[in-house]
Amino acid sequence: MIAPPRLARALLRRLLPDTHRDVILADLDEEFQQHIAPKRSVLGARWWYWRQAVASAPFALRLRKRRGVGVRDRRRFAMLDETLADLRFAVRLHITRPALLVTVTLMLAAGIAVTTAALSLAHAVLLRPLPYAAPDQLVHVGERDLRNAAAAAASAGRNMSWPDFLDLRARQRTFVDLAGYSGGSRTVIGAGPADRLSMAEVTDAFFRLLGVQPQLGRDFRPEDSHASAPAVVMLTDGSWRRRFGADPGVVGRTITLSGETATIVGVLPPGFEFPLRGLAELWLPIRPSQAQVERRYFHWLSVIGRLRPGVSVDQATADLSAIAAGFAAVDPKYHGATAASVQRLDEFIVGDVRQILIVLFGAACLVLLIACTNIAGLLVARAAARAREMDVRGALGATRGRLVRQMLTESVALAAPGALGGLAAGHALLRAFIASIPDAQRASLPHLQDVPLDATVFAWVLAGSLIAALGFGLASAWRLGGAASRSATRGSLGPDRRGARLQSGLVVAQVGLTLVLLTGAGLMARTMYGLLSVWPGFSAEGLLTMRINLAGPRYRTQDAARGFHRDLLTALDALPQVTGVATISQPPLTGLGNSGTFAVEGQPDVDDRSTRIRTVSPNYFEVMGLPVVAGRTFGPADGPGTGPVLVVNETFARALFEGRPTGRRIAFPFFKGRPFWEIIGVVGDEQVAGLDGPMRPVAYFSYLQSPDSEFTLMARTTGETRPVIDATRAILADRDPEQPLFGVRTMPEIIASSDAVFRRRTMLALVGLFASAALGLTVVGLYGIVSQSVAERTREIGVRVTLGARPGQIVAHAMRRGLSPAVVGLLAGSAGSVWLAPSLGSLLFGVEPTDAATFAAVAAILAVVAAVACLIPASRASRIDPVAALRRE
Questions:
Q1: Residue 483 clears pLDDT 50, i.e. is over it
Q2: CA–CA separation, 358 vs 126, rounded Å?
Q3: Number of alpha carbons in the 13 Å side-chain half-sphere of residue 76
Q4: What is the pLDDT of residues 270-281, one digit of tens each?
Q5: What pLDDT, on a 0 to 100 scale, did the predictor assign at position 136?
Q6: End-to-end CA distance of the chain
Q7: What interhelical angle do 387-395 and 353-385 show, nearest 10?
Q8: Spatial separation of the C-alpha atoms in residues 217 and 266, rounded to whole Å
Q9: DSSP 3-state assignment of 46?
Q10: Would you call 842 exposed, middle or buried from its count of C-beta atoms within 10 A (0-12, 13-18, 19+)?
Q11: What does pLDDT average to over the chain?
Q12: Environment class of 116 (CB within 10 Å of its CB; exposed 0-12, middle 13-18, buried 19+)
């Protein structure tokens, strides 16, 4: 049996008089149970009961009026009845005028859609807590070099060495525990074809510190990190399902990881993500090498920690810095002034993205404001057309408050479709935007794998929509004060000043906000132009990169690695689509690769000498087109049996040897068997990091003298790249099927997905989209205000033409109606742009936030567009027939 809604029965019980209450309720319940409930769903039946209760309210009030019901109750339920009547009237009114309904719905839906998407993204990344136990206690721990301000800024949050980590972990007093993690990749053999998967290595306390329990198997144990312990691995839920078909018996099975057999000991829970190693599919315990254990200067380990209850970040920083200060006594060369860097984990993960999301959310809000002011302008114009209707209602007894309530109800009904459509479109827009983000960037931020329409976001958007709707109604009601009173007087020549001032104010707001968005888009366009104009030192067109890692016992000797390397280059160079092929340890423009300190023979040891290190094939410089500035490059004679040599770039030569390094010798601490390397040549600079960074010193080693197990193929191709990729896979399968080809990307793809370009390109696309939408709305608004002015001044224009006014004078007079507030809006928008442009901050490149040329160009474009928008309706005014205009009304 379906029970009637309790709230509806309680409402009637309160309203009905005692003598009629039981009879009416009994009749209503009997009809509900016998005729309604058996034929309808639960929701439909209860909705019927509610409608009967509301319909009975006026009758119940009349009954209680005879028995002394309170005045407040009668007024409250009378207002409810009137509001329902206003709502029904508003729905009928909007249905009979679909043009206005469709226009307002589209405008409001566009504004709410971009705001919903931006707010959802900002809420997911910035406001939602990390999915770990007590996430506010989690911090990221690093080191800083305090020798000078520049070194401190550059080294903030840098990785630790293994000895530093052990010392801090053993002596700290402010953390529950510390855990380390590192990254990389492994070649997986077993459970499918050989593949290269991203992995993370962690210390035994890592998952316990995060509060994460595996769904199958066990966590890592301290003994798993011993060098002699059997290799073990944990799988993510995704890799478990893809490679093992979600087999519950996977624990205990073995797979081969880069030639080493590892036992699967656990599967991580579904939904687990660690954004700092977001693409990792394999999780292994850290087993540091002997070199990593001994070298305190080798900073390779990232560290997180959990604060003890009641301990602040500042207290933890002071605690670890006091310990780190003692490292100087043990290693004065590399730890002369070392301090700790402690930052909340969520803030460290978000990093520079916080600024981007805040700017995007602000831009989306500006679009919504522009849409709202445009809609308000349309409703103000419609209020003038309904002035006579409101006069009639007032003559029949409607008070001003009653009319205002009607206008507010109509505005809410008008805004409802746009709000609901905007929510749906915003969710779809968010999905599309997230799908367009490259995997690396998407995986490095929390919660972006699944961003639902959060209840908080839903509530905020609905509240904003309601406020906007009420604002529309208030704007219309404000216009009534002038237009309604004027309409009773026939023969006036112009519009009311009150409505004109309101419409002009809305135009000022529209133009000003649009100029702010256009200025931001202009600055980002200048930034992208300057960034993509940077010469990286080589031509990116036709350059294909493919990575190989020689894993397994076959390549444990350097001679075996050299032989495979030589045969592979020979086979690829013979392909008809390849004009040249070389190898390098890490491709340029990725920022990846090792750095190292060095000492110069015959000079005192200096701590801050460091360089990027690359291992290349002898023909690398020729394939990349890097010019030889001095000396020579590597040749076939520079092999394992000759003296160690290297090539440096121009930045290296200028910074350390005044451009003449040829013949000088330098030593690297990690090459203990080869104390000095002779510089034999200088080549042109290539950008190893992002396009927005300075050129860095680079030292190139020959693959023949210092082979790496992992290297990148750099192939110059003609035409399509797919045949080259397929041919390379076939060559690898023929020589060693256990060596997968991975990291296949063209150089333009590397540039486009790099952090420097992607962040700014995304900002340009979104801000440009918002600015375009705002510009379109502003054009519509200006067109509408001038058209309305022409329509209201038809008789005045007719009089002016009759008195001898020329068409040019009529056009100029009509355009002033729209251009005057537009000029004020340009001035206000320029001031707002000067104030808000610095918020773009680090996103800009090659242009100042207050670039005068950009400001002037954007203002000129907006002024021309505004003039055209005003000219079209103004030109119609010059063609008005004065006889027809004077006969009007």
A1: no
A2: 9
A3: 7
A4: 989 898 888 899
A5: 92
A6: 64
A7: 60
A8: 4
A9: helix
A10: exposed
A11: 82
A12: buried
164-217 pLDDT tens trace? 999 999 999 999 999 999 988 888 887 667 888 899 999 999 999 999 999 999
Look at residue 808 and tell me whether its pLDDT is greater than 70.
yes
CB 634 within 8 A of CB 547: no
Structure tokens at 608: 């801050």
The β-bridge partners of 200 are: 183, 283
Asked if residues 601 and 657 have their Cβ atoms less than 8 Å apart, the reply is no
pLDDT tens-digit profile of 6-44? 777 777 776 666 656 677 778 778 777 776 777 777 777
**Token pair in block for residue 28:** 């209503």
> Rounded to whole angstroms, how far apart are CA atoms 849 and 855?
10
pTM of the complete model: 0.77
Residue 325: both structure tokens together: 């200060």
> For 233-256, what is each residue's pLDDT tens digit?
999 999 999 888 899 999 999 998
- Contacts of 92-101 with C-beta under 8 Å, sequence gap 24+, read 93/410, 94/410, 94/413, 94/414, 100/378, 100/382, 100/414, 101/414, 101/417
Q: Is 266 helix (H, G, I), strand (E, B) or coil?
A: strand
DSSP, collapsed to helix, strand or coil, labels residue 549 as strand
Q: SS3 string of 75-96?
A: HHHHHHHHHHHHHHHHHHHHHH
Q: By percentage, how much of the chain surpasses pLDDT 90? A: 32
- Adjacent-strand bridge partners of 583: 713
d(CA 628, CA 724): 29
Alpha helices in 611-649 (DSSP H): 620-624
858 and 829 Cβ atoms separated by less than 8 Å: no
User: Angle, nearest 10°, between helix axes 852-877 and 807-836?
Assistant: 150
